[in-house]
Design brief:
With about 375 residues, the chain is of the alpha/beta class. It is about 55% helix and about 5% strand. About 35% of the residues are buried. It binds zinc ion.
């Protein structure tokens, strides 16, 4: 059956399976909903099914066509996603190599997100022009052409307008599947051309269950992963390679140093975290989870990771409710600032600043950032 490997998403599966069984798929779909809940997996499965060569399985995952689609090399499968657009030929060649490596990894682990570091990414007019050229031919190998565009909100205005033209005069042998976690950032004219299918946030027990059964995580780590990822299976899976327990200890250490006014210790930890690319964002997520535990502890007297209760109770005593709520706010602001490319070190400093009871350097400086 279609979408056998997709956890949760009863409504989306029902809508799409019914359309598939009755042979009345919409030509353009928009799968929308939070990050990491299965939109792209569902889209890949549908794209695979469109050209699967087997009669009794949809998709079979074994035939030549299924394997080529899964490897992102099927000539009738076009995959667009936000990526950097270098200006020099040399950089473009390097990027193409980088992307082809990433796609090989993604074939084995489809939940992997592209990591282009701090380079700005978009779906550009060039990407859409290239797509348009490909759309002018009939399918090469398969019955249909499938276009998957993930992160569709990342189209530039020019790209979106050009893409709209393709959607307005689609070739009858093409199916489009767009995914986004921010449907309102898309042109209304594009939205109205697509049949929208909502993907729901996953319940924590489904994420934990999938991590334990499907990916061999131990239940304790699975609980922490679900919490840290905001119940996004995709993000949780991206975190599985990291030593979360050690990172959590470091987050507690930093908050303790901040609460006790041990500035050198604080700076040392911040230096250590800011050194590795990608780590500050994950570390801020961890700080946010620890701060969340401290809030739970104050409100209910209990936390989810009960093994840490004694240590956190002790830390909680050093931070009153007022300071704690300032701290939670500061961490969220720091996470937002990091997304806007503010220096990681400054973001980490701002995240623990309020625990010293001083004026929040980050918010007062905001105008100049
Ligand atoms: Zn197949």
């Amino acid at each position: 059956m279609l979408f056998e490997n997709l956890i949760g998403q009863k409504v989306a599966k029902k809508i799409l399976r019914q359309a598939w069984d009755e042979d009345r798929l919409a030509q353009s779909y928009l799968f929308y909903g939070p990050d990491g809940v299965g939109k792209e997996l569902a889209a890949m499965e549908l794209a695979m099914a469109l050209n699967c060569g087997s009669e009794n399985a949809t998709p079979c995952r074994q035939c030549n066509s299924c394997r080529k689609t899964a490897a992102y090399i099927h000539p009738d499968f076009h995959y667009l996603f936000p990526r950097p657009h270098p200006s020099s030929d040399g950089d473009r060649r390097k990027l193409a190599e980088e992307i082809s490596e990433m796609l090989k990894e993604k074939e084995a682990q489809p939940h992997l997100a592209f990591d282009f570091g701090s380079r700005p990414t978009a779906i550009s007019i060039d990407d859409i022009r290239e797509l348009k050229e490909k759309m002018e031919f009939l399918p090469y190998e398969g019955k249909r052409k499938a276009v998957l565009m993930t992160g569709a909100e990342a189209m530039t205005t020019e790209a979106a307008n050009a893409f709209l033209k393709i959607l307005e005069e689609p070739s009858p042998t093409t199916n489009f599947i767009l995914t986004t976690d921010r449907p309102n950032a898309l042109l209304p004219t594009i939205l109205s051309r697509c049949q929208k299918v909502r993907f729901e946030p996953l319940p924590p027990e489904e994420v934990i269950g999938a991590l334990v059964k499907g990916y061999g995580q131990d239940p304790r780590a699975a609980g922490l992963l679900a919490e840290l990822s905001g119940n996004s299976l995709g993000r949780a899976l991206q975190m599985t390679g990291q030593d979360l327990m050690a990172e959590r200890n470091l987050a507690v250490k930093l908050l303790r140093a901040a609460a006790e006014g041990k500035h050198w210790e604080m700076l040392e930890t911040i230096e250590q975290v800011a050194r590795d690319r990608g780590r500050p964002a994950r570390f801020l997520e961890m700080l946010s989870a620890v701060a969340g535990d401290l809030v739970h502890l104050k409100v209910t007297g209990k936390i989810k990771n009960s093994d840490r209760q004694a240590e956190l109770s002790d830390l909680g005593k050093k931070i009153d409710r007022q300071k704690l709520s300032e701290m939670v706010k500061a961490i969220e602001q720091a996470r937002a600032a990091l997304e806007r490319n503010v220096t990681p070190k400054l973001c980490l400093l701002a995240a623990c600043n309020t625990t010293q009871g001083e004026q929040d350097a980050f918010t007062s400086d905001r105008g100049s950032l």
